[in-house]
Write a structure and sequence with these properties.
The N terminus is likely disordered. The protein is α/β, with parallel strands linked by helices and 281 residues long. The protein has a five-stranded parallel β-sheet, with no helix packed on it. Strands 3-5-7-9 form a four-stranded parallel β-sheet, with no helix packed on it. A two-stranded antiparallel sheet has the order 1-2.
Length: 281
């Protein structure tokens, strides 16, 4: 039996793929003329369906419900065209959150809660500047919360509870306004504000008592030195000029004498008027 099919007495048949798709060289001369079976007629190819123009959705008939910022929203009619939210919650999704998701810079709401997502949050999530609501709760996410969280400017609703995050909570102008501890609930290895658990090394180190006493003594000495320098500067600034400037000294004392005489005259006049009033009474 020939490996290609039949022997030369009964003829030889090529595989259909070889017979149809390749050029076969003429067979070697032999005593018997090989018999080649004609290929079976292939069924006619179905004609492609007539193309129909793509019709736009009728927005007046569409209806979508979504949870954004913890509120059930109902999108109907033309509002659905303006929706820029992505809700994939409760879909049993697994694996890591793709880094490419952070390229949706105009996204305002992202809800991936109640899935089986794992791994860390993409480090570039802070590039989503328009994000107003982010819900990653009830997953198996781990690692630290990216520092890019501090760059959010519009985020007003955040939920990272029921995960396995570790390390300190990032600080930033916007994220520090989200001071509800329930945002980070059930993440036992998280620390920092607004949680009661403080991060190691976050508290200021306590100075030794001896160093504190020496610092206080130094402060008192510096205070006395400053007072003395101020007094000396003010005193010699006036007295020194009067000592070394004779003209200034004469003008100064003439001025003082004039004011003294004026006060003396005023006192005498007022006293005389008072005595006259008392006599008339």
């Amino acid at each position: 039996m020939s490996p290609m099919g039949w022997n030369q007495e009964n003829g030889m048949k090529l595989n259909k793929s070889i017979d149809d798709g390749n050029l076969v060289s003429p067979p070697a001369p032999s005593a018997f003329t090989p018999m080649v079976l004609p290929p079976a007629p292939s069924p006619p190819a179905p004609s492609p369906p007539a193309s129909t123009p793509m019709s736009l959705p009728d927005w007046t008939q569409e209806h979508v419900k979504q949870v954004t910022k913890g509120i059930d929203l109902d999108y109907t009619t033309l509002d659905l065209q303006l929706m820029v939210n992505l809700d994939l919650s409760s879909n049993k999704l697994t694996g890591r959150i793709p880094e490419e998701l952070t390229l949706l810079s105009k996204l305002r709401g992202l809800n991936l809660s109640r899935n089986f997502l794992s791994g860390a949050i993409p480090s570039r999530i802070g590039y989503m500047k328009s994000l107003e609501s982010l819900d990653l709760s009830n997953n198996h996410l781990s690692g630290t919360i990216p520092q890019s969280f501090s760059t959010f400017t519009s985020l007003s609703k955040l939920n990272l509870s029921h995960n396995n995050f570790t390390g300190p909570i990032p600080k930033g102008n916007q994220i520090q306004t989200l001071d509800d501890p329930s945002i980070y609930a059930d993440n036992p290895l998280l620390c920092g504000d607004p949680l009661k658990k403080k991060c190691p090394g976050a508290e200021a180190p306590q100075l030794p008592e001896e160093y504190t006493n020496e610092e206080r003594k130094l402060e008192k000495v510096m205070f006395c030195v400053v007072i003395m320098l101020g007094f000396a500067t003010g005193f010699w600034g006036v007295i020194g000029v009067l000592v070394y400037k004779r003209n200034w000294r004469r003008v100064y004392f003439d001025y003082v004498d004039h004011k003294t005489d004026m006060v003396y005259v005023i006192v005498i006049v007022k006293a005389a008027e008072l005595r006259r009033r008392l006599r008339r009474a």
